[in-house]
Structures are given as C-alpha cells and as structure tokens.
Amino acid sequence: MVKIIKKITKRIIKTDPDVIIILVFALIVSAFVFLKITFLSWSSNEIDPFWASLGILQKAHPDNPIIFPHKLILKRGESADFGVRVYNELNLSLEDAIPFIHKCINVNNEFLLDDRMITLTTTKATINSGEEHGFKAKIKVSEDLAPGMYVCALVVGAEGYEPYVSEYPYGNLVIEITD
Predict the structure, then answer these.
(1) What domain range includes position 24?
(2) Three-state DSSP class for 166?
(3) What percent of the chain has pLDDT over 90?
(4) How many domains are contained in the chain?
(5) Distance CA 23, CA 27 (A)
(6) Pair 79, 164 in one domain
(7) Residue 66 in 3-state DSSP?
C-alpha cells in the first residue's frame, strides 16, 4: 500500500503544474457544490423566503411567543409586507386569531383616535394551545396620517375584541411615517 502511494505521489510531482492546478481547482469547485446543495436542502425546510425577507429567521416558541419586525419606516399612503409569528402559551385554543394594531400613540403621548390610520390585513387562524402559527400580512398607512413616530401595541387575539393586552401575545411596534 505504501509503495502504491509513493508511486502516485512521484507521478503527481512529475506531472505538469497546469494539470495539478486544474485538478485542485476541480476539487475545490466540487466541494463548494456539495456544500451548497447540502446547506440548501437543510435551509429550504426551515425558512420561507417571505420570513427571511422580513428578518424573521426563527419560529415563535415559549421563550419568545411573538416575533415580528419591531420597527417600520413607511411613507404616507404606503403599504408593505409584514409578518407575525406567534406561539400560543394559553391553555386554550385561540379561535379566529388575528394580529391587529392596538392603541397607537405619537411622540406627544396622544392616542391615534382613528384605528383606520394604520391597518394590518391578514387571514384569521385557529392556534391550538402549544402550537406556533405565522401570519403573512400587509400593513398600510393612511395618506392622512401626519409624519412622525408612532408606537403601537401589536396584539394577536380575537378581532374586534378590546383585549386586556396581557391575556394575548403582544409586543410594541414602532412606525416612522415620512412624507
């Protein structure tokens, strides 16, 4: 076995340097292709491109029950893709659950009186206890909303119900409105 390895080594050393460079290059390319195929197959099962485009690279879980982009910059009248991932920690199913914007305030601590100024549109879902769900949504800002910074509670609960925010998964969303 040792004699065979020595013979192969002597032949490689005597071989033209261009051939060696081509062989090394071919091995490197093969390794990259293998790694790319391997990692793509792993990642394609885990992260949807929609969530990746929003920077949401993990699912919601008991330690982090609601995940969404916490800051948006939008122009008046503009809409954008928005996503919310939520884990139901409650001991009951959330029937007709939907994320919604709740009680926005501006930098002067004034509440937005018209809930239609910032809207979140998505479909309802039932989230069983101990399960995670991702809502793909659109967020839209009215053209009538004054430029500035707004802080809103984003709540996942029953639509049209004024929740005690602590009952349902929630978080703060900062929206900067520009002209």
Answers:
(1) 2-44
(2) helix
(3) 45
(4) 2
(5) 6
(6) yes
(7) strand
